[in-house]
């Protein structure tokens, strides 16, 4: 089974920290450069707060570092969580990036709020922006980027994307006439239904006369199914510990090997992997082809959460072999 027609292939990164923040960001830069060499279309940074094993709390800063270290690949956020920010500040940050790296900057925005402690700290600066007014924030953001008083206003403003895991995000993206990215890697929601809703209700805009949909996928590819399953255990254990209230750094595969997995741990890992692409090349090829056939997505964005940089590079290489990028 193969994917047809070809779709663009991209990367979502969260800068997971297994040793030090410095080494984690060095790995992110190295992986972005490698993705560019492999022909990937874009490299996005997520936004997460309050977890010692996750370094991607400031996507605008990391995106700038990645853009400076690469030459062609599109760089951006996947995404900036607007409930955490004043839209004007986001517009200034990404407007600056767009002026520094013309035609290469994407601004994906989502509505997810952080955990309560982080939210309480942020709320001191966001009292005039209700958390549930996501559509209003997006409208203000787009207006600031294209017609407000914000400076710099780049000749080629960043492309604004709506991120979501339900029909609510799809509806907003369709109404605004912007691209839509469905977070299938979250393991919840119906990607096919949301993307179909987005296409059916899409209202053309000047920047995007046609709908454009992306789907994200947790992808861990190794030479065999067993090897990939072992490598995926690092992130399984880190996120399980986070959910259980015992946050840890990203453990190595060797540390995972010695972990005493409880029934609850195993159930969490099974749920997290459901519908994702974890395995050898043939297994992953079938999962990707099935997802693309169901959704009709124009682009696939993979997130490969492994401890060793060499394993992440190998995973991107094997993924590209299963899904050749368009010329």
From TrEMBL:
Gene3D superfamilies named among the record's database cross-references: Luciferase-like domain
MF terms (GO), sorted A to Z: monooxygenase activity; oxidoreductase activity, acting on paired donors, with incorporation or reduction of molecular oxygen
Sorted UniProt keywords: Monooxygenase, Oxidoreductase
Pfam families (UniProt xref): Bac_luciferase
Database matches in InterPro entries: Bact_Lucif_Oxidored (IPR050766), CmoO-like (IPR019949), Luciferase-like_dom (IPR011251), Luciferase-like_sf (IPR036661)
The keyword Mitochondrion belongs to this UniProt entry's keyword annotation: no
Cellular component GO terms, alphabetical: cytosol
Luciferase-like domain residues: 20-298
Family the entry assigns: To bacterial alkanal monooxygenase alpha and beta chains.
PANTHER family: LUCIFERASE-LIKE MONOOXYGENASE
Protein's UniProt name: FMN-linked alkanal monooxygenase
